[in-house]
Amino acid sequence: TSHIAKQSVDQVKNIILDKDPDIIALELDRKRFYALRYKKQRKASLRSIKNIGVKGFLFQLIGAWVEAKLGKYVGVKPGSEMITAIQLAKEHKKKIALIDQDIEITLKRFSQEFSFKEKANLVIDILTAPFKRKKIPFDLTKVPSQAVIKKLVADVKKRYPNVYKVLIKERNDVMARNLYMLMRDYPKKLILGIIGAGHEEEIMDLIKKIEI
User: Fold this and answer.
1) Which whole-number Å values give the CA distances from 15 to 88, 91, 164, in the listed order?
2) On the chain, which terminus has fewer CB atoms closer than 10 Å, C or N?
3) CB 114 within 8 A of CB 43
4) What's this model's pTM, rounded to 2 decimal places?
5) What is the dihedral of CA 127, 131, 136, 139, to 10 degrees?
6) Please, what is the angle between helix 30-37 and helix 103-113, to 10°?
7) How large is the average pLDDT for residues 113-119?
8) 3-state DSSP call for residue 194?
């Protein structure tokens, strides 16, 4: 899915109603699930900053602001496809599995790994962005193609290797293993995994390679 795409909301609804899965696995942890389910965003505190670090806290703050702005632009609240899945799971009495890494672990790792070079690259990219042409135009209301996703991920991996490692690679490892364990523990159940499009291909490859 794309977390701000109307197309994703429709796809989630259609596939749940059409395939009637037994278990719906979401790219969420307990904290983000609670925030979406009950529409309660966690307030910043000195304790939370201590737990996740200043860089992780700032990333969370800026990321949420950017996602909200883009969501407002396309008319879809961030995470709407997850909210749709949660609502349908409740209505049709489906089990929900939360497969993502704890957000505090991810943000703490971000604080630990975000390097000085990456911070410098970020400043340069922000300052030069207005003068660059758009190299990969795509419709924000739809899920990007795999070709576009591969290009974007490759760019992040090259310019921000630690950001890629923490936000994508490490979480892919966690989600792949959690999905695999669901498949192992419920071999006769139909499991629907709802994850961001940028995670899909690598998670599928990782699941095939896992040996427990």
Assistant:
1) 11, 15, 30
2) C
3) no
4) 0.90
5) 90
6) 120
7) 95
8) strand
